[in-house]
Amino acid sequence: MLMLLALPFFAQRMEAQQVSLRDAFQDKFLIGTAINMWQVRQGGEKMHNLIKKQYSAVVAENCMKAEAVQPIENIFNFKDGDDLIEFAKRNNQVVTGHCLIWHSQTPTWFFTNDKGVQVDRETMIDRMRKHIYTVVGHFKGKVKGWDVVNEAIEQDGSLRRSKFYDIIGEDYIRLAFQFAHEADPDAELYYNDYSMDNPAKREATIRLVRDLKKHGLRIDAIGMQSHLGLDTNLKQYEQSIEAYAKEGVKVMATELEVSVLPWPTDQQTAEISTNFAYQEKLNPFKNGITAEMQTKQDKFMVELFKIYKKHSKDITRITFWGVSDGDSWKNDFPIKGRTDYPLPFGRDLEAKPWVKKIVD
Ligand code: XIL
Predict the structure, then answer these.
(1) Is residue 303 among the annotated active site residues?
(2) How many angstroms separate the alpha carbon of residue 215 from the centre of ligand 1?
(3) Which residues pair with 149 in a beta bridge?
């Protein structure tokens, strides 16, 4: 009796394993995933098969960031990035580079001299040029495009007062795009940020695109990171896609995941330095997600992918920030030690119900 009742459930799981996001969207846009070095070097057969079958694009979750590729001035480390690219090549996947200029995960030497004093504008520009030339130059021909500047805009639409901004001034953004293009004229260049459904950030991003174009600089696409929650306003999110497309640039979701956990304040962000103390009540699904919450996520994802499909002529890539729930950064952000369920595949590497739905 029990066996009979369980049958439809198993049948559904079996079917879910057969579907492929990569194949389903191949005529519309790339389906990407962010991967880490454990997945590249170990990962196991099931993980490797999953990455290959489900994703047509990969991006490095961490190993191409400044702190990883140039931890010490003039000491470059490309081993991880090279291995990642080899891995992607075996899987016939497109690689994009993440990221060149960002206020986070950039070593402090970048901004200071050997006495710990902040450097001047010229030194900072030289360091930026050297970093971009060397990194983009190394991966030339192997990556399709770069997140050139990451997270330069604040929630209110003003430019973030990062060290790059403080030391160089607002033209650091133009300079970064200029250097990236000089280093690899064939690479696509992207501006990437979170909370892109926020109208103030949308407007500021449009100003940024226009400013780059006005100065004759290349910008191919806007990366909407898309660290979403179930309360994300999809109307506003869609309006941003439309607004960017109107500027004549492509649109990508570059770091998509949909958290099912409560955010502790009313201002959500993906600024990685944000953290809150652990509280049991903020970790409601540590022993498994409820059917009710799974249904909510299924509905949300179906709505989201309807939007992507509707705008597929303007969208070039939808990249998830991770492969499966177990490897998502959301288990530790913005609160350490929670159990989140934000990605297409569960901790058992099986597809979520919504994966089958959107493929259909
Ligand atoms: C995150 C990684 O997933 C973590 O492993 C790391 O500890 C911190 O950074 N915006 C970005 C990504 O552009 O690079 C960040 O990735 C998540 C927020």
Answers:
(1) no
(2) 30
(3) 101, 191
